[in-house]
Design a protein that fits this description.
The structure holds two protein chains of two kinds. Helix content of chain A is 64%, strand content 3%. Chain A is mainly alpha-helical. Chain A has one domain: Transmembrane di-heme cytochromes, Chain C (Fumarate Reductase Cytochrome B subunit), CATH 1.20.950.20. Chain A has a two-stranded antiparallel ribbon. Chain A is elongated, with a radius of gyration of 23 Å. Chain B has helices at 7-13, 18-31, 39-48, 64-70, 77-84, 99-111, 127-130, 140-149, 158-163, 198-211, 224-227, 231-234, 238-242, 253-256, 324-357, 360-363; strands at 53-58, 86-90, 117-121, 124-125, 134-135, 138-139, 153-157, 176-177, 188-191, 315-317, 320-322. In chain B, the strands form four sheets. In chain B, strands 2-1-3-7-9 form a five-stranded parallel β-sheet, sandwiched between helices. A two-stranded antiparallel ribbon of chain B has the order 4-8. A two-stranded antiparallel sheet of chain B has the order 5-6. The longest helix of chain B has 34 residues, at 324-357. The N and C termini of chain B lie far apart (110 Å).
């Protein structure tokens, strides 16, 4: 605490935050419905013929429908992410990995996570985490491509079927598409475990409002963040935001 | 037999009626997977086009595709071989002919250079200069290259010829490859399957015979009308899948009642073939109908996608077996344990640091 004063920095636009929570919900739904589709079971009585069974609470058709709906929501939600990136500086998609500085910061964070460095420099957005988000978008992209390949090949004559059938031939056969879909789903879940832990840990260790920032868009830092110019500007968002809060809470005087 | 006749000329020579010729044409139209409107084009082609000369080679394979072809019902394989195409060379059917037949092969590829259809069954072993498959005393790869040079089109019959086949399964000791990996640049159509459906085999060759061009191909080079759809999407057991009714074992009530075989490893959801709609033996049955899951025999690399009776392949890890989901669950468990341990260490570090940096009274006001 250099001057004992916390400063608010406006980092995330509402678009990114909505996208984040849509992504969380759809990934949870996709993962569990996906597990069901991989190893389905039936609840209730079903009889010998499928005539009425499809309308039961839990049927392959229902669960598959939910899986596909969640998949479309996840893919479409990415529009919000891109829009946020366009309108707000804090929603940057790419870390500046062409600069030496970015790698120095990443090393700083990594040494801290390896418990070799007691504290790290103050960042508005953790450079290591930003790279991992790029990684998880890549994984989601693989899931989307493999998933849509399986989905659209129901109608191979359609324009979608014709374009996605290439994925099958590139990956030898469609069975490998299924396999990749399974493995990458687990990679995304492993990412989620580490991500949630890291967010909680940052909140606990640094007390900068790491978790609430994904609701409010604001982080609170005691020190001047080193990536200030990259994520947000002093004049623009944060000072005005802080001033507005201060003005709103100021008591009226004659 | 006479070569270079059209189908109509052949019908006239045999004293068959125009009516039966037209009926045959209608049947061929359906067989080729074409729209009924195309029937007039088929008739026109059958009146004019000369019957194609076919050279049929056998490589690294089991001749199962021949066995399948011989069981074609509509048209009968005998009709195809004796009346519809002119098979000039088939080393398997004419093995007894011996040396003179090899001489005939040389004459044929010169006489009909650029006109004949080359049908190939079997993969091409390349290891040790191809000595793992010798035909007439020569490596198969040499014979294939000779025959392919003058071929108007090459038909790869069966998974061996189209993808490499079972003998190219890991570790592929004979280094067997697909025909198209040896002879590129020519018109090649893949008719995979182990074996392919007999009616598909006859239909592909008839399509080329009548229209002089290959049927429309998909991105893997297979004719769309036969390999466009997944077996899963054309399977008569699909309603059981949608309703979540699955045979869990091959001896349970579900299997007996004909439920979906998805959970006992059916590869229908990943396999492109006509088994679901054309079926085998003139529409009599197909593997799933007889109670056995599809093994994906028309897929590239199906031989390495074992276990055939498991949904996901087993991955041998020392002293245990696991599939993708088991590995994923274990890895996630390890990740959870890892972050918990890291969290505990981080907390310890933090308190240690605070105790060092601040005197007791400041820390507890």
């Amino acid at each position: 605490m250099s001057d004992g004063q916390l400063k608010a920095y406006y980092v995330y636009s509402p678009w990114l935050r909505i996208f984040h929570w849509l992504m969380v919900m759809s990934i949870v739904v996709l993962f569990f419905t996906g597990l069901y589709i991989g190893n389905p079971f039936f609840i209730g009585s079903q009889g010998l013929e499928p005539t009425y069974a499809f309308s039961e609470r839990l049927s392959m058709e229902t669960v598959r429908f939910i899986h596909f709906a969640a998949a479309f929501i996840l893919v479409c939600a990415f529009v919000l992410r891109v829009y946020g990136f366009v309108v707000n500086k804090g929603d940057r998609l790419l870390p500046r990995f062409w600069t030496k500085q970015h790698w120095a910061w990443t090393m700083d964070i990594m040494l801290h996570y390896m418990l070799l460095r007691a504290s790290h420099k103050p960042y508005l957005r953790n450079p290591l985490a930003r790279m991992s988000y790029l990684g998880v978008y890549f994984l989601i992209g693989i899931e989307a491509i493999t998933g849509f390949t399986m989905y659209v090949m129901v109608d191979p004559k359609s324009i979608w079927g014709q374009s996605f059938s290439l994925v099958n031939s590139l990956l030898i056969n469609e069975y490998y598409v299924h396999l990749i879909h399974h493995y990458v789903a687990w990679l995304i879940i492993i990412f989620a475990v580490v991500h949630i832990y890291m967010a909680v840990r940052a909140d606990f260790m640094e007390r900068e409002g790491e978790i609430s920032s994904m609701f409010s868009g604001v982080k609170f830092l005691a020190h001047q963040p080193v990536d200030l110019g990259e994520i947000a500007t002093e004049e623009d968002s944060l000072v005005r935001y802080w001033d507005n809060i201060a003005r709103d809470s100021r008591p009226h005087s004659g | 037999m006479q070569t270079n006749n059209s189908l109509w000329e052949l019908f006239q020579k045999r004293g068959l009626s125009r009516r039966s010729f037209l009926k045959t044409c209608a049947m061929i139209t359906g067989l080729l997977g074409l729209s009924p409107l195309k029937c007039t084009e088929v008739v026109a082609a059958a009146e004019e086009k000369n019957l194609p000369v076919v050279i049929w080679l056998h490589g690294h394979e089991c001749t199962g595709c021949d066995e399948s072809f011989l069981r074609s019902q509509t048209p009968l394989a005998s009709d195809v071989i004796l009346n519809m195409i002119s098979v000039e060379y088939d080393d398997c059917l004419s093995a007894a002919a011996g040396e003179p037949f090899e001489q005939h092969f040389k004459e044929i590829i010169e006489k009909y250079a650029g006109q004949y259809i080359l049908a190939v069954e079997g993969g091409v072993p390349l290891a040790e200069n191809g000595i793992y498959c010798m035909v007439g005393g020569r490596p198969f790869v040499t014979v294939l290259k000779e025959a392919a040079a003058g071929a108007a089109a090459i038909v790869e019959y069966g998974s061996c010829s189209a993808w490499g086949g079972i003998q190219s399964a890991k570790p592929n000791p004979t280094n067997t490859v697909a025909v198209s990996q040896i002879v590129g640049g020519t018109t090649i159509v893949k008719v995979p399957g182990c074996p392919p459906i007999p009616e598909v085999m006859t239909a592909v060759i008839m399509h080329f015979a009548l229209f002089g061009q290959l049927p429309p191909l998909d991105t893997s080079g297979r004719p769309k009308q036969f390999y466009g759809n997944r077996i899963h999407d054309t399977c008569y057991r699909r309603p059981f899948f949608d309703s979540g009714m699955f045979a869990e074992r091959f001896d349970d009530a579900g299997a007996k009642a004909g439920w979906c075989l998805y959970k006992v490893g059916c590869r229908g959801p990943a396999t492109y073939n006509s088994c679901g709609n054309m079926r085998w033996w003139n529409g009599l049955s197909y593997p799933i109908q007889s109670g056995h899951g599809c093994i994906g025999c028309s897929n590239n690399g199906f031989w390495d996608n074992d276990q055939f009776y498991e949904r996901l392949p087993n991955i041998p890890i020392s002293a245990t077996i696991a599939n993708a989901d088991t590995i994923g669950a274990v890895a996630t468990g390890v990740a959870v344990a890892g972050v918990v341990a890291h969290g505990a260490l981080s907390v310890v570090e933090k308190y240690k640091r605070q105790r060092q940096s601040k005197p007791e009274e400041e820390r507890r006001p």
